[in-house]
Amino acid sequence: MLDTNLEILNQLLPSLKKNGIQNFIEGERTAAISGDTFDVHSPVDSEFITKVALSGKEDVDQAANVAQKAFESWKKMPHQERRNILYAIAAKIEEHAENIAVLESYDTGQPIRFMKKAAIRGAANFRYFADKVIDAPNGLSTPDTHHINYTIRQPIGPIGVITPWNTPFMLSTWKIAPALASGCTVVHKPAEFSPITADYLVKLAHEAGLPKGVWNVIHGFGETAGKSLTEHEAIKAVAFIGETTTGSLIMKQGATTLKRVHLELGGQNPIIVFDDANLDRALDTAVFMKYSLNGERCTSSSRLLLQKKVYDEFVKKLSQRVKNIKVGNPLDPVTEVGPMIHPTHQEKVLRYGAIGEEDGATLVVGGGTPDQLKKGCYVNPTLFIDGAQNMRIAQEEVFGPFLTVIPFETEEEAITIANSVRYGLTAYIWTKDVGRAHRVAQEVEAGMVWVNSQNVRHLPAPFGGVKYSGIGRDGGEYSFDFYMETKNISVALGDHLIPQLGKNQ
Ligand code: NAD
Fold first, then answer.
1. Which atom of ligand 1 is closest in space to residue 425's alpha carbon?
2. Which family is it part of (predicted)?
3. Is 264 considered catalytic here?
4. Whose CA is nearest to atom 39 of ligand 1?
5. Is the CB of 475 under 6 A from ligand 1?
6. Cβ(266) – ligand 1 distance below 6 Å
7. 240 and 279 assigned to the same domain
8. Which of 81, 178, 184, 286 could lock onto 155 through a cystine, CB 3.0 to 4.6 A?
9. What is the DSSP string of 468-489?
10. Annotated catalytic residue: which of 192, 264, 336, 445?
11. Which atom of ligand 1 is nearest to the CA of 465?
């Protein structure tokens, strides 16, 4: 199976190397106006993959103006027609799922075992939001004595979509599908570390019949191309996924043009395991939610809060499981953890090994890099126990295969520890006590809580964080609230009283 994936990669790489990746504006591949490019290397083996257009303000200007022009016709396209184009994009993604998975895996280091599903989930996002196209403009009827009031939803305008490097394909579809379903047009700026599948995806969408100018992609760095996009007058809203500090910058940058912003940011999420839980299933969840997707996952459970009665036994089993995790080439289906996205991120994750020891936690598994993998950005899956809430490894987002275990005695203590971080994206609660499950779920500061479960995404349910983890919600109706404006229309039913100023003079 590794051979099959390498074969696919070897078929796709030569044209990527030869042609590079350009911007995609008004249905055409377009070099950056400056002619500048930057190189992308694979985290798997540090090999050069391709040259990518390095866009500046003038490229963003061109793409945003195109998106503004295309908005006039896209928003008026009959709903059935728009819906059918989104269905066709979903079908194209499914047809190309294998190529997408291999490219994503080689570009990001994410194990192929998860990337196959990510491509299929991308198609599911398009299909789900296509199903909703016809109802999206629906609003409320709020009758009054002398007026009938009703609301409709209308697309807000061109959207700037800015995405990160972790699972970039799936996350792009998560933003772009509802934007297009709403009738908005898009300028997408993918992360500079992982631009490849964004380019693949926009081309598939045009093969599926998307009109030119509706979806444009500009490549480049956040501080330049990304910043210009958030400042552009024609862009009405910014859908952003990335770090908390970048989210804060985006709010500032967009303030002058009164941008609507939706921010999906970082996390330092707890999994709380009480002593009455199904401990085998809780163990599966703790390992999966931290070490899947290389731990480069916003919803990962980075702090395991363990009740003292079961602490020693649970830690023993957990250590064994983490030791067993298979690190290797992400294109190999047996691999469970692949390389970190980039040498700078590899260094960051490794640094937290030293920080954990300085903090006084106990390293029981991992730290450092695997002996057998000298090329590429690999790190060993790492487990610290005897952590405490004030430690940096329990406060900061490491964003790697790195778990910190913290003991607790009582329910109140577990809640205090869980809430003692600036983030609030997800929480996972394990207990058989129904009352306690509800109590803790209500007290814990997070946008999403799973009880006796790993993260299982349900597309109509709201997705998003509180505190420094974000502003706004995605999913179902929540997505349409962001990409559309609600307009109230009030119609008089008869000759109601209108004050007659100036009549008697
Ligand atoms: P990042 O913030 O460094 O970059 C994200 C994107 O923002 C990139 O495309 C980058 O080029 C762009 N950017 C950077 N500076 C910018 C600026 N000043 N103006 C406009 N755009 C700018 O994030 P990252 O390192 O690529 O991704 C990892 C982070 O994303 C983690 O913190 C993770 O938790 C978060 N994330 C959150 C969610 C969620 O749903 N909450 C999902 C996935 C990832």
1. 41
2. Belongs to the aldehyde dehydrogenase family.
3. yes
4. 264
5. no
6. yes
7. no
8. 184
9. TTEES-BSHHHHHHHHEEEEEE
10. 264
11. 41
CA of 175 to the centre of ligand 1 (A): 14
In tens digits, what is the pLDDT along the chain, a chain of 505 residues? Answer: 799 999 999 999 999 999 999 999 999 999 999 999 999 999 999 999 999 999 999 999 999 999 999 999 999 999 999 999 999 999 999 999 999 999 999 999 999 999 989 999 999 999 999 999 999 999 999 999 999 999 999 999 999 999 999 999 999 999 999 999 999 999 999 999 999 999 999 999 999 999 999 999 999 999 999 999 999 999 999 999 999 999 999 999 999 999 999 999 999 999 999 999 999 999 999 999 999 999 999 999 999 999 999 999 999 999 999 999 999 999 999 999 999 999 999 999 999 999 999 999 999 999 999 999 989 999 999 999 999 999 999 999 999 999 999 999 999 999 999 999 999 999 999 999 999 999 999 999 999 999 999 999 999 999 999 999 999 999 999 999 999 999 999 999 999 999 999 998 7
For ligand 1, what atom is nearest to the CA of residue 474? Answer: 40
**Are 342 and 296 in a shared domain?**
yes
Question: H or E element: which one contains 209?
Answer: none
How many helices (H) does the chain have, and how many strands (E)?
A: 16, 21
Q: pTM surpassing 0.85? A: yes
Residues 330 and 232 reside in one and the same domain? no
Residue 225 Cβ < 6 Å to ligand 1: no
Active-site residue, 298 included: yes
∠ CA 209-212-217, nearest 5°, is: 105
Q: Give the domain extent around 178.
A: 2-265+469-488
Atom of ligand 1 nearest to the CA of 244: 32
Ligand 1 neighbourhood includes 107 CB (under 6 angstroms):
no
- Total count of domains within the chain: 2
> Do residues 255 and 279 both lie within one domain?
no
What is the spatial distance between Cα 51 and Cα 40, in angstroms, rounded to a whole number? 6
CATH number at residue 428: 3.40.309.10
Strands 382-385 and 402-408: parallel
